[in-house]
Every structure is written in structure tokens, then in C-alpha cells.
Amino acid sequence: MPQRPPAEPGMREDEVDTPALILDLDAFEANLDAMAAFLAPTGAKLRAHAKTHKSPVVALQQMKRGAVGQCVQKVAEAEALAWGGVSDILVSNEVVSPQKLSRLLALSGIAKIALCADGEAGIALAEQAAEAAGQRLRLLVEIDVGSGRCGVSPGPEAVALAQRIAASPHLIFGGLQAYHGGAQHQRKPEQRAATIAGVVEHTRRTVEQLRQQGLACEIVGGGGSGTFMHEATSGIFTEIQAGSYAFMDADYAANEDAPPFRHALFLLSQVMSTARAGRAVLDAGHKAAPTDSGFPKVWQRPGLAYTGASDEHGQLEVRDGEAPKLGEKLRLIPGHCDPTVDRYDWYVGVRKGRVESIWPIPARGRMQ
Q1: Cα angle, residue 336 at apex, residues 332 and 342 outer, rounded to 5°
Q2: Distance of CA 76 to CAs 83, 91, 104, 138, 368, Å?
Q3: 3-state secondary structure of 364
Q4: Residue 319: which of 331, 298, 302 has the closest Cα?
Q5: Which of 8, 54, 105, 271 has CB atoms 3.0–4.6 Å from 133's, for a disulfide?
Q6: Do β-strands 265-273 and 297-298 pair in parallel, antiparallel, or remain unpaired?
Q7: How far is 252 from 246, CA to CA, in rounded Å?
Q8: For residues 113 and 131, what is the distance between their CA atoms, to the nearest angstrom?
Q9: Distance in angstroms (rounded) separating the CA atoms of residues 237 and 18
Q10: DSSP conformation class of 263
Q11: Burial class (CB in 10 A: 0-12, 13-18, 19+), 84
Q12: What is residue 15's three-state secondary structure?
């Protein structure tokens, strides 16, 4: 059951109950506009990754600006988006559970659905589910372009899987999935450029080999918020799967030559103790702000550092300037936006210090 919203439209930001997920609407909209403007002349389309925002409200705003659809990692995320009006969804992951495949196919009446595969056994399971449902399921072959996660080797192995899909009366070959997750957080721009040059070459070679076998790729998808400019201008990628760009967390901002987006997502927290000199305690610990990508950063208070966390407490160190007051509310920039959003049921949309909107996050916590 969702928690009650922490705010109401018209409230001042400092009246919002904490911890709460704040979305700075001016920065958020500027980020969406900036990505749309960058991609427009490249010919590549945005298929924004909803594992970041988990909200049909956000998805539909991206699609209003030209995104062709959304990608997700979980069937349950696809369900939440489709039920919320998103009409084109790619599960950019492998699904092998017969129950999950049946659920995914059940969405085809309200949305265009596609899925990834990286082996014969997975293709056979998708084929069986599609046949049982009396439908044809679109499959992309995922190739491993360096992440060392899912994906078949580029080249002949990928071509063989594509041929297997194309030969099935219950499947449709949809193209290639070629995402390199690790490249997104390589700190130096020359590292990212070199890594994606290799990704592009693997992908280009595979697309050409498919063409020689009479197989066209409707979708060649990949890219993320750290490297999208390279994939989009490669002439080979047709879809870009960036997600974090809409919010811009602290980890992406740590990249040299960071993506040209503004911090839009914040965790609003309150000072709950000032009992020790030079220290303060916030009501936002591990359960409010995941620390897999480091501690959150305090927004526009350079003299304050978030230095430690327990379940319900965040430790602040006063390094310079004025110490925060008991009850004061501070914005924190999450280290990693995706798992941070997954903690919350609501976005509190704020513009110029006032709450303008409350948006639900129906795909949060959907792991199946």
C-alpha cells in the first residue's frame, strides 16, 4: 500500500514532510528538452530507460518530446507503464520465466512489446509462450559489447540467433541490443569515447553480417546518460536508452566533461539532532538514500558533508560556514538516482519554492 503523499500542491517546499523525493520541475523539463534537442539532428530516437524514473507520468512527458517509447528491466515495470498509457515498451533484458512471459504477452493488447534474448534456450521459451498466447513476440538479440553481463558474442553467434528468431512463425526479429553499462561511469571522456568506439565497431560489424543474410535491424539500441552522444552520432544506433539524464545524480556529475544536464532530483531531509558540536544528524539514512554510488551530496551548502549513515540517520559534518539548525530542511543530491527513486511512492514536483504537483511512482519496488 502506498504511503500517504508527503505534501500537497501549494505548500512551500520547507513544509514538505521528510524524507521526500523532490523533483525540481524547471531543471527536469530543461533536461528533457536538452536531450530532445541533441538527438533531433542525429536521426537516433530516445527510448528512455524507465528503470530510472519508474513513472508513466515521466515517460509520457519524454514521449511528448519525441521519445519513441520506454525500456524497462522487469516485466512488472512494463505492466506499470502499459497500464499508465505508455504504448511502446522494450524489456531490455532476458526473461525466461513462463509466468512472466505470459504476463508480458498479455500487455500486447494495449502496448507494443519487445524483449531481448541471448541464447537458443531463451528463444525457445519465448516462442512457446507466444505460441500458447496465439501471438507473435518481437525479440532483439542482445550482444555483449564489453559489459560482461548478458549477451551473446557479436558477429556469427548473434547472426545465428537472429536467423533462428526470424525463422519462427511465433517470433519477429526486432534488431540488436548493444548496451555497455560500465562505460557510462568511466570518469575521463577519452576513456568513454574509446570504449564506445569499440562498441560501435562490434555492433556495426554484426549489423552488416545480418544484412548480408537478408536480416534488417529495425532497432539497434543502447547508449546511456554517460555516452549517448557517441552512440547517437555513430550512424549505427537507432535508439538511445538513457534514463538518468532526466534527473542527473551525483555519480554522473562526477564524470569529467559530465553530461550537460542539471540536477533535478533531490532527497529532502530534516535536521533531527544538533547535540554534538560540528555535527548534525538528518532523518535520511540508508533506507532513504542508497549509498552504492557513494553518499549523497548536500545541495548548495559546500561547508556541509554527508559522511556516514545508519538505517534511519544521516551524519553531517560541518566543515565550514554556518552549522544547520535543528528542524532545518536540506536538499541532498542522490549518489545513484535509480535505487533512490525505488524507495519512494511519490515525486513532489516543486517550482520556485512551491509544490506544484504530486506524481505517483507505480513501478517502484517491482522486481518481478
Answers
A1: 90
A2: 11, 10, 9, 18, 6
A3: coil
A4: 302
A5: 105
A6: unpaired
A7: 12
A8: 15
A9: 42
A10: -
A11: middle
A12: helix
Given a cut of 80, is residue 2 above it in pLDDT?
A: no
Q: Which letter does DSSP use for residue 202 in this model? A: H
Contact present, 287 and 309 (Cβ < 8 Å): no
pLDDT recorded at residue 259: 83
Compute CA distances 136 → 27, 64, 70, 112, 173, whole Å: 41, 28, 20, 11, 10
Distance CA 38, CA 232 (A): 9
Could you give the percent of the chain with pLDDT greater than 70? 100
**Which grid coordinates are listed for 276?**
554534538
Q: Which one, of 274, 285, 363, 290, lies nearest residue 326 by Cα?
A: 274
Q: Please check whether residue 290 is in contact with residue 339, taking contact to mean a CB–CB distance below 8 angstroms.
A: yes
**What does the H/E/C string look like for 122-138?**
HHHHHHHHHHHHCCCEE
The C-alpha atoms of residue 195 and residue 178 are separated, in whole angstroms, by 13
pLDDT at 1 over 80: no
The backbone torsions φ and ψ at residue 90, rounded to the nearest 5 degrees and listed phi first, read: -110, 125
Helices (H), 169-283: 189-212, 228-232, 250-253
Residue 3 has pLDDT above 90, yes or no: no
All three cell numbers of 298, joined, read 548536500
Query: What is the pLDDT at residue 55?
Result: 98
